[in-house]
Amino acid sequence: MDGGLSIEVLGYSLGNFSTPALAMASAFLIGVLLAVVPAGAAEVFALAAGGLQPRALVIPAVLLMTLGHVLGKWAWYWLGTQEGRVRHPRARRLLDDSKAVVARYPNLGVMVLASSALVSLPPFHLIAVAAGLTRYPVLLFLLVAFAGRLVRFGAIAMIPGLFTPDR
Predict the structure, then answer these.
(1) Which residues are CB-neighbours of 106 under 8 A, at least 6 positions away?
(2) What is the C-alpha separation between 88 and 14, in angstroms, rounded?
(3) Please, what's the b/e burial string for 42-60 (b: 16 or more CB within 10 A of its CB; e: otherwise)?
(4) Can you say how many angstroms the Cα of residue 73 is from the centroid of all Cα atoms in its chain?
(5) pLDDT band at 53, cuts 50/70/90?
């Protein structure tokens, strides 16, 4: 074998499970999973991705993880679009007030979304729901979210390289 993880079951080899393609697919799927389940572990995975060897895999892994993460947050956005089903008077009033503020100050939405995507304040999954509630343009949501999350995860992924000698 070439040093990858090979698994044998009942005498049959299941092959090499340590390929760059598997690492990239895993990065994407983990990005989706950690977006849908807001556990705050995406940053831990970005940190781990920064330690990938060979180092040439770090950038594609972070890109794919970010893409998966943003697509997973799109599910939260979609949840926000279901606001028509909200019947509780207080919740309905908050939704209407939120829409009015976004309509009055359209640039405020971009700034809050960018801040949340970059530093997670306010929490990004809550902002994704709010973006859906206010019918924020989905393409703009995806682009700003991707840019902010890429900077965030890229910066985190650089940390292991600061402590690892170049090879």
Answers:
(1) none
(2) 54
(3) beebbebbbebeeeeebeb
(4) 6
(5) confident
Q: Which residues have C-beta within 8 Å of that of residue 95, sequence separation ≥ 6?
A: 83, 86, 133
How many other CB atoms are found less than 10 A from the CB of residue 10? 4
**What's the pTM value of the predicted model, to 2 decimals?**
0.79
Q: Cα–Cα–Cα angle for 31, 118, 37, nearest 5°? A: 35
Cβ–Cβ contacts within 10 Å for residue 167, how many? 6
Give residue-wise pLDDT tens across range 111-140.
Answer: 989 999 999 988 888 888 888 888 899 999
Tokens of residue 25, six digits: 């697919």
Q: Note the pLDDT tens digit of each residue in 22-33.
A: 889 999 999 999
**Count, residues in the chain:** 167
